[in-house]
Amino acid sequence: MSRRVLRSLALLPLALVVLAGCGGRNPAAISHPDAPPPHTGGVRITGNPLAPGFTLHDDRSRTVRLSDFRGRWVAVAFLYTHCPDVCPLIAQNLNAALRKASDLRVVAVSVDPKGDTPAAVRAFARSHRLTSNFHYLIGSRARLRPVWRDWHVATVPGPSNTVSHTSFEVLVDPKGRERLFYDAQVRAADVLHDLRRLRGTV
Q1: For the whole model, what pTM was predicted?
Q2: 24: exposed, middle or buried (C-beta count within 10 Å: 0-12, 13-18, 19+)?
Q3: Which DSSP symbol is given to 118?
Q4: Largest CA distance in the chain
Q5: What distances in angstroms separate CA 191 from CA 4, 54, 100, 178, one per listed residue?
Q6: Considering only CA atoms, which of 121, 10, 126 is closest in space to residue 64?
Q7: How far is 92 from 125, CA to CA, in rounded Å?
Q8: pLDDT for 197
Q9: Going by C-beta distance under 8 Å and a sequence separation of 6 or more, which residues neighbour residue 187?
Q10: Phi, psi values for residue 121, rounded to 5°
Q11: What b/e readout covers 43-82, taking b as 16+ CB neighbours within 10 angstroms?
């Protein structure tokens, strides 16, 4: 599937974005227990375009660039710490993959510049036992907005400090190219399976 098509899926009308984001039960991200899984891995991104670069800061005010991770596989996600449902599941699954793949890193970009304070990020990391290879990046709306634009992430403020947003993850290879697209149902087993399959194709 082309990046254009995948990005178009991430830019559905805002009414659908509200359903696809956090702050309520997400039919796109919570499967019926009797339903088969929608996929057994990521969706291939044809052409393997270079991932849009960005420079942000972590909770310790350290500068982090996406290009810092060249030479490693990187899962890029868009989350917020006060999310009541989907974001914690995404974080837990990606964190589980990190524990079994030494050449993988996770870069999570905030979609909530107001609520994702350094203290909130540290509390989120403690609560979900995120490894040191899970990098949660924050910033002002002015700093984050260009990243959301380049990655085609829509955000909509909701009630009770929730944020509805497009939920997806992209696996970037050691050369900085986009390889696979995952939806909010990303599973650690899928990422690990795909890494084993892709390591010899870089």
Answers
A1: 0.82
A2: middle
A3: H
A4: 46
A5: 22, 23, 10, 14
A6: 121
A7: 10
A8: 92
A9: 37, 93
A10: -65, -45
A11: ebbeebeebbebebebbeeeebebeebeeebbbbbbbbbb
Q: Which fold has domain 3-25+76-201?
A: Glutaredoxin (3.40.30)
Residue type, 97: A
Q: How far is Cα 152 from Cα 32, in angstroms, rounded to an integer?
A: 28
3-state secondary structure (DSSP) of residue 181: strand
In the block, tokens 């203290």 appear at 119
Extract the tokens encoding 178: 């986009």
Query: Which residue carries 């990303």 as its tokens?
Result: 186
Sequential pLDDT tens for the chain (202 residues): 544 445 444 433 333 333 344 643 333 332 323 333 444 579 999 999 999 999 999 999 999 999 999 999 999 999 999 998 899 999 999 999 999 999 999 999 999 999 999 999 999 999 999 999 999 999 999 999 999 999 999 999 888 888 989 899 999 999 999 999 999 999 999 999 999 999 987 6
30's tokens:
């919570």
CB atoms inside a 10 Å sphere around CB 27: 10
Q: Give the position of tokens 């390591």.
A: 199
- Which tokens hold the place of 122? 């540290």
